[in-house]
Amino acid sequence: MAEQVLEQVLGPAEIIAAMVAPEGRQNPYPFYEALRAHGNLLHVKPGLVVVVGYAECTRVLRDGRLEVQDDKNYDQIYPDWRSHSSLRGFTNSMLYTNPPDHGRMRRLVTSALTPRQVSGLRPTVERMSDKLLDRLAELGAGGAPVDLMAEFAFRLPVAVISELLGVPEDKQVWFRQVAADVMIALEGLTKPEELAIADRAMDDLAAYLNELIERRSAEPSDDLLSRLVQARDDDGDRLTHDELMGNLMLLLNAGFDTTTHLIGHGVLQALERPDFADRLRDEPGFPVGYVEETLRFEPPVQATSRWAPADVTIMDMEIPADTKLVVIMGAGNRDPLRFPEPDRFDPDRPDIQPLTFAAGIHYCVGAPLARMEAQIALPKLLRRFPHLAVAGEPSFRDRWLVRGHDYVPVTLG
Ligand code: HEM
């Protein structure tokens, strides 16, 4: 077993270095198992704890004594961070904000994205899927290979989030590259030249969003962006301009880069297992468990982190102040204590509850939307093209944090 070799030869710090290197980026799971052999909650070095167990990840994510990395924390670890617009952009969002401001921002954003509004989007998602499938049929006519990621898995979530925010169709393809570049900033171990790419993308995106905000302020319509611009909570607070920008960046990027990969992973599993493809086409209710298992098996976001502002004890481990805890949901989702035969893709597992959308106060705002998109898109795609087949080697993105394919050639049959 590769992980046994890894575990014997390498210590936790070396396993982590290999995990984020190109080989690990292609398949991080053996590296997670090698880490697990050292412990589910693992002191890697002073200031760094890594969490790979399901129960441990849940506990850390729900622990109110821990914080997300916000601007005061960035000041401490990376004094130069303010010179990077990509880092500045995200720190104004709720994902990089702690209570009490976090609650205010989250309430304002969720008031404009309620479960009722999300379920009201179902007909829109169905209509958009059908339109994209028509387009796919044209592109793949006569057996021409098409890239499933660029032409479908990416286009559906970007169309949905763009509809929500009122972004016109001609900007949507541009978003793919910009969003991917911006997300580089979140990788954590980013090299300066990569951060420069993220900064440029953030500047372009900010300029565009500024334009959009100005337009909506002058002429509000019924979209999510107009509601965010107007959003006020009970105390009469509203989002400041920087907070609005930060949260828009987050919604846009979190809203489709991740869902794209959920759809990509889901299609590829089904193409490897024709019995699952048949059930996705024909069995009512099957897509729900199938999407949960896809989320568990290949989480588009592999990890997140928390910060201990003061000494804490978690599950008998004493964690000194200023320790960073890297919570690897991709590893927790394969914890054999929680999931028997974790490396087997099994949509019939009972009670899946993957860690993929995190837990606690930062639990993903868009989880119901992402689930709905995948539950609609996968059966529709497979019904429309019953002979869909992979037509070449799919390639994984060379990234660890946001895991997915950048290219999946298929023929429609
Ligand atoms: C498969 C798709 C998705 C995955 C895997 C995903 C994953 C995550 C994760 C792991 C977090 C929490 C990170 C942490 O606690 O540190 C999160 C937060 C968030 N997600 Fe998602 N997400 C997805 C789709 C979406 C969509 C479609 C939207 C928007 C429409 C969205 C908006 C957000 C927002 C606003 C937060 C911040 C919540 C907070 O800080 O309180 N996500 N997401």
TrEMBL record:
GO terms for molecular function: heme binding; iron ion binding; monooxygenase activity; oxidoreductase activity, acting on paired donors, with incorporation or reduction of molecular oxygen. The keyword Metal-binding applies. Signal peptide: none annotated. The keyword Metal-binding applies. InterPro entries: Cyt_P450, Cyt_P450_B, Cyt_P450_sf. Keywords: Heme, Iron, Metal-binding, Monooxygenase, Oxidoreductase. Transmembrane segments: none annotated. SUPFAM superfamilies: Cytochrome P450. It comes from the Bacteria. PANTHER family: CYTOCHROME P450 YJIB-RELATED, P450, PUTATIVE (EUROFUNG)-RELATED. Belongs to the cytochrome P450 family. This is Cytochrome P450. It comes from Sphaerisporangium krabiense. The lineage of its organism: Bacteria, Bacillati, Actinomycetota, Actinomycetes, Streptosporangiales.
